[in-house]
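Technical annex, item 7. During the second reporting period the consortium partners agreed on a shared format for inverse folding records so that results from different sites could be compared directly. Each record opens with the tokenized structure and is followed by the designed sequence. A conforming record, contributed by the partner at site C, is shown below for reference.
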């Protein structure tokens, strides 16, 4: 595919509908597929991230205004960058924000908690994160930071409802967040801090170049 196509859109009644052209593309794939979808609030860089995963500068619509550019769910099938003979299916979703767009269907609603059985692994993409993991001046683990980030705020204002909505969804559909690289991350942070201190201590006194020669 040279560019993404609309996979799921809404009809005049506001109900989801699958685009037949997108289904025909999927039906023509006769090899293993890896599906990657991104969700989150609008204007947070989801489309940009998916373009990077596709190895392209452009593709999924980007915007520089406060309005959401992606409507519905868009699909882009590209060769997997690592696994030969595998197709990477990228799904870019419409950003979450406006509570007016959340509406119940006239038909009997299914228990959304049943979706947990079919959901894949949850990956939280942290952008431009260079701060120390501390809360109230106390060191915390990655798990504790995630729990803190997902904590709900009390209140009934529109702003608080919008703030709590994505956190409630994550807590409902993903009950555990195992982290396997905790020790590696902690060690990396310690070594990075030590290296920075050593550099700052010696770099401005290395008039004869002895410190730099020690790295050769």
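Designed sequence (site C submission):
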């Amino acid at each position: 595919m040279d560019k993404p196509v609309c996979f799921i859109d809404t009809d005049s009644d506001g109900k989801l509908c699958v685009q037949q052209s997108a289904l025909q593309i999927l039906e023509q794939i006769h090899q293993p597929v890896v599906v990657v979808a991104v969700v989150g609030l609008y204007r947070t860089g989801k489309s940009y991230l998916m373009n990077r995963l596709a190895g392209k500068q452009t593709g999924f619509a980007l915007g520089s205004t406060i309005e959401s550019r992606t409507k519905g769910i868009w699909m882009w099938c590209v060769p997997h960058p690592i696994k030969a003979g595998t197709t990477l299916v990228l799904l870019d979703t419409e950003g979450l924000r406006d509570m007016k767009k959340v509406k119940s269907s006239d038909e009997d609603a299914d228990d959304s908690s049943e979706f947990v059985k079919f959901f894949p692994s949850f990956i939280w993409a942290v952008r431009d994160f260079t701060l120390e993991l501390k809360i109230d001046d106390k060191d915390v683990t990655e798990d504790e930071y995630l729990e803190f980030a997902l904590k709900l705020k009390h209140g009934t204002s529109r702003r608080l409802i919008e703030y709590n909505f994505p956190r409630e969804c994550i807590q409902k559909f993903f009950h555990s967040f195992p982290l396997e690289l905790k020790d590696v991350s902690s060690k990396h942070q310690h070594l990075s801090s030590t290296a920075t201190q050593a550099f700052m201590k010696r770099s401005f006194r290395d008039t004869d170049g002895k410190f730099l020669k020690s790295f050769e």
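The first helix runs from residue 20 to 27. The radius of gyration is 23 Å. All partners now use this format for quarterly exchanges.
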